[in-house]
Amino acid sequence: MKPSVFDYASPTTLDEAVALLAGHDGAMILAGGQSLLPSMNFRLAAPSLLIDLKRIDALRGIVVADGEIRVRAMARHRELELDAAAHRANPLIRAVMAHVAHVPIRNRGTVVGSLCHADAAAEMPLVLTLLDGTVVARSAAGERVIPAADFFLFHMTTSRTAEEIVVEARFPALAAGAGWAFNEFTRRHGDYAIAAVGAVVRLGPDGRASEVRLAACGVSSRPVRLAAAEAALVGTSLDAAELEAAGQAAEGAVTAADDMHATAAYRRHLLATLVKRTVAEAAARSSGRAH
Fold it and tell me: Options 3.40.47.10, 3.40.50.1000, 3.30.43.10, 3.40.50.1820; which CATH number does 7-52 get?
């Protein structure tokens, strides 16, 4: 299919892009286009004006500073995946990025675009949620910083207003001594996750978990923190029985209905299994036992 008729603009400054967005009802932003253009071709999206950000130099690049990785709106997935400074600051990101679609798509798609698309089974929204990251949105009224917990509202729905452009995503660096892990289950490599879990674990001097962060995607209408499982693990030695209890606690986060890929019962079982596996791997990295 072909998209419906639309006007096209390619501004060279962010101020120009913001003014165009504010002045046109039904305008939409184009960055990488790997989600938007197929949606337009199927007429699931029908912008009256397409505002292409590709010529705005201020929206390019990745900056690692002040304990966070700042990914600007036109930075491609592959750019973040291969960025050495970002990898040193938070190696979890590169590990997750290997699961995002395929290399040709990561070469063109943007990280911020994926966050704004907000597919409930996508990996990068999970990472932002896990790390308590933020996005920066700009409009004619000014700028606001939106925590991940407030940004993702529902499947393909965010708290970004129609007049805002998300100009940057900020991923916190990992704290010293933190271990990380990510596991997902898909029908085929590159597919969206049927269920996926990310974990950050820090062990105290006594070997017990002083911090546990867990987030999942593919199991609900948005990426979710697994708060009940986190609470079940903090202060424990992460033995088999404690991991089993955390896995069972995580099952309550599954709200997705049965679909063509899996039943809700299967997702609950899968999520519990992924929680146990992912926490164990993150703890091994924190203790220095992982290779």
Answer: 3.30.43.10
